[in-house]
Structure formats: structure tokens, C-alpha cells
Design goal:
alpha/beta; 8-stranded mixed β-sheet; 12 strands; disordered N terminus; disordered C terminus
Length: 348
């Protein structure tokens, strides 16, 4: 997605994006070669805006979240641009990244029990995080800041000296969010923050995240498999498939009138009280070490055409602000034409 087709960029004179991502690539080294789990992703995120990131397991959602902060494992590599407040994080030095992580950007992981040190009291987690970014802060001040952040999450400050195992799963997730917001970040990346939580606690966590972005103008990226959560919580949605964003736009617009065949398949697979027949998408995602040519969804697409495997489709804009990388719409071809299925040779 090139600059001139990035969806929902700020209007002239409006606020600058808190996050600007351009042609982001995140690769893992494998014995068979580089695997591009994220391949050419671009988008903007504005202050106070929430973007839902959805797709099947293995499509690159969590890798994208980690690549934004350069949290790749040994052998991983990131290319492109990730601008936060005008600073490009790709290629930034480790001291610069350590300053940004936790202070300007908070990453809330799933399974908080694996992220909290079981040998440290909750208050000590806050003291460590705060003093790492603000060395001049006394332990007493840091503890007070931690208690205030916990109170904001609905956890009594009197619990600050408890250990992580003394809290329920929902309260541990609140602690993770409190750790993330204690230094007032510009951006929160929440990776499956409600996994394994019951629906009541899930709603509470989502309400907290929603209040943070509304009241503090924090940008929020919500990574999830749950389309219902995105429909209720997010302003925009980006649908990922095989390392690429195949559709992006206003959440109500995309969910009510999806354009990309993959988005249509995902939405058709959701279950509601009116569901009488289960639906699934045939096939499996491609091997990203040797991805297929052209559209990566072509082998599974019910609307596939002969030329879908010739070149990667560009982003068409079938509706204002709604982009889809699909040859069914004008603009996906380099010459700007659509190729209606009935006028084309169907590949299968």
C-alpha cells in the first residue's frame, strides 16, 4: 500500500498520525530461507483511534505488533518505516528503542501470567519499569504511581504488594494494562488481551482500553481473532492474510459490505444466534517461504480469475476510505481497470 492510497489519513490541518507505517516487512530465518510473516504493510493510526487487526492464525498479526517495536527473535529482520512521533524505529539503536518501549508505546500481551515475574510483588514490577525510564524517580514515588495506575484499572491499591499468583486472570490482565499506561504512552498495542477470559471480564478489559483511547487520545491497535470484539470496540479494521493487509476501512463499512473475498469468508464463518449452518473457508494459507505468485488468496478464492496469479493486485478503493487488494474492483490493475469475472477466463 503506497502513500497515496493509505486509508483514512488525517484531513488537511488535522492531527498528525501517532503512528505511520510504510511498506513494513518482517522476516524470520528458516532452514529453507527467509519467511516474510509481514510483507509490505502500510497504514496510519491517529490519536484516539482504534484499529482492529484480524485474520487467521499465522497470517502475521502478532508478528506485525512485535515488528512495530523491533521485538524480533534472533534471525528476525525488519525493513520499511515505522514512524512514531516523527521518529523512524526501523534501524533505531537499542538505547533509543528501550527508551520508547514502555514509555511511548505499551505492548499488552496475552497470557499475562507468563509476562509477570512470579517472584516479584506487583509493586516491584512498577518500580522497575518506572525507574528504567525515569531514573530520578524514587521508589516511593514509583510505588505511588503504580498504585494510582492500578486504581485506574479498578484494582485496590492495597493489593499492590501481592504477588501475581494471588490475582485472577482478569485482574492480572488489568495489571498488565496498568503497567503499560503508567508512563502515559502515545500508543497501546494489545495482542489478544482477552484470551482465556470469561465474557464479563472480557467486556471490562475492552471498556478500559476504550476509555483510555477516548479520555487520553491514546492510539490503540487491537490484535484479535474475535470479529465481534472489533465490531464493538474499533473505529477501523485491517484484515490480514498471508502477511498482507487485503482490506482496510471503517469497521461498520467493512463489516456491513465487505469487498475482499477473504473478508467475506471470515465474516460468513462467524456464529450468531441466527446461525443455522456452519461455514468455513476451504484450503489453508500458503507457505510464506515460497508464496504463490499474484494474489496469495487465489488458491482458495471462489472468484479467482486467470490473471489473479499473474501479479499482486494493487489497492482498489471500491468505497471512499475502504481499500481492497482485489482484481474485482477498478484500480487493482496497474492500468486502473477492473476485470469482471464474467468477462474473464476463470482459472478454476
Amino acid at each position: 500500500m503506497t502513500d497515496h492510497v493509505v486509508a483514512n489519513r488525517a484531513p488537511a490541518g488535522g492531527p498528525e498520525p501517532v503512528l505511520r507505517v510504510r511498506e513494513l516487512v518482517a522476516e524470520y530465518a528458516t532452514p529453507r530461507g527467509a519467511l516474510a510473516a509481514v510483507d509490505g504493510v502500510s497504514f496510519d493510526l491517529h490519536p484516539g483511534e482504534s484499529l482492529g487487526l484480524v485474520g487467521e492464525s499465522g497470517c502475521g498479526k502478532s508478528t506485525l505488533g512485535r515488528a512495530l517495536l523491533q521485538l524480533m527473535p534472533p534471525g528476525g529482520a525488519v525493513r520499511g518505516r515505522v514512524e512514531l512521533g516523527g521518529r523512524d524505529l526501523v534501524g533505531a539503536s537499542l538505547p533509543v528503542l528501550r527508551e520508547i518501549r514502555g514509555k511511548d508505546v505499551a505492548l499488552v500481551f496475552q497470557e499475562p501470567m507468563t509476562r509477570l515475574d512470579p517472584l516479584m510483588r506487583v509493586s516491584d514490577h512498577f518500580v522497575e519499569a518506572i525507574r528504567a525510564h525515569r531514573p530520578g524517580t524514587s521508589r516511593r514515588e514509583a510505588r505511588a504511581m503504580g498504585r494510582a495506575a492500578l486504581a485506574q484499572m479498578g484494582i485496590p491499591p492495597t493489593r499492590a504488594d501481592n504477588y501475581p499468583h494471588e490475582f485472577s486472570g482478569g485482574m492480572r490482565q488489568r495489571i498488565m494494562i496498568a503497567l503499560g499506561i503508567v508512563l502515559r504512552p502515545q500508543l497501546i498495542i494489545a495482542d489478544e488481551p482477552t484470551t482465556a477470559l470469561d465474557v464479563i471480564v472480557e467486556a471490562q478489559i475492552l471498556d478500559i482500553l476504550d476509555a483510555l483511547r477516548r479520555d487520553s487520545s491514546v492510539g490503540l491497535i487491537l490484535i484479535t481473532h474475535n470479529l465481534g470484539i472489533v465490531a464493538e470496540t474499533c473505529d477501523r479494521v485491517a484484515v490480514m492474510y498471508a502477511g498482507k493487509i487485503v482490506e482496510i476501512g471503517d469497521v461498520r463499512q467493512v463489516f456491513s459490505a465487505p469487498k475482499h473475498p477473504y473478508t467475506k469468508g471470515l465474516l460468513a464463518s462467524t456464529i450468531s444466534l441466527e446461525t443455522t449452518r456452519l461455514h468455513s473457508i476451504d484450503g489453508t494459507p500458503p507457505d510464506l517461504v515460497t508464496p504463490p505468485p499474484g494474489c496469495r488468496y487465489a488458491p482458495r478464492c471462489p472468484f479467482v480469475m486467470a490473471h489473479c496469479t499473474d501479479a499482486v493486485p494493487l489497492y482498489a478503493e471500491p468505497e471512499p476510505g475502504q481499500l481492497a487488494a482485489c482484481y474485482l474492483y477498478p484500480g487493482a490493475n496497474a492500468d486502473g481497470r477492473a476485470t469482471p469475472r464474467e468477462d474473464a477466463e476463470v482459472a478454476r
